[in-house]
Amino acid sequence: MHIAIVGNIGAGKTTLTQLLAHHLKYEPQYEEVENNPYLEDFYSDMKRWAFNLQIFFLNSRFRHIVELQNKDINMVQDRTIYEDAYIFAENLYDMGLMSARDFENYSNIFHSIIHYIKPPDLLIYLQASVPTLVSNIQTRGRDYEAGIRLDYLSKLNDKYDKWINNYNEGKLLVLDKDNLDFANKPEDLGKIIQKIESQMFGLF
Q1: Which domain range does residue 51 map to?
Q2: Most CB contacts within 10 A, which of 45, 51, 129, 203?
Q3: pLDDT tens profile 52-65
């Protein structure tokens, strides 16, 4: 069984991954932290290195998910390969940081490799307004997130909503994070688990 959790920066993906994996006794899977050889170059010249950076991320995530699916384990995954393409690469293109030629090439590679992996059995989208995202980002206090612009978060939200509205790869559960505090309220986590079991196992 493969459950994947998606959502904007600060939506609560990692926290929900931890809580669900513990409750369901599934293996949590987080974003791989790798030494990306393009990261430093990207921050010094985003337009020059955006394509290289995204290709590295795409390849890394592809290898990781293929390895996991070959193990045939029950897992809860924090973020997916789909977000690389439909959210972050597309946003770089919209911002003028990736050329049309590079974005088309990237998209073609993505659509070629996506056929070799199975979509999650259940995709959970943590939908959150910008104020909720900002509050969560400020609460966790990561230095590298301090400079994230509100318009950037808003653009990413638009990308997520567009992708989710057209998602047809499998079962989908949309959660309103503005009205859920699963980190501090057990009753909210209980509601989510009930919805997941209803989706996955037909329990009401």
Answers
A1: 2-201
A2: 51
A3: 999 999 999 999 99
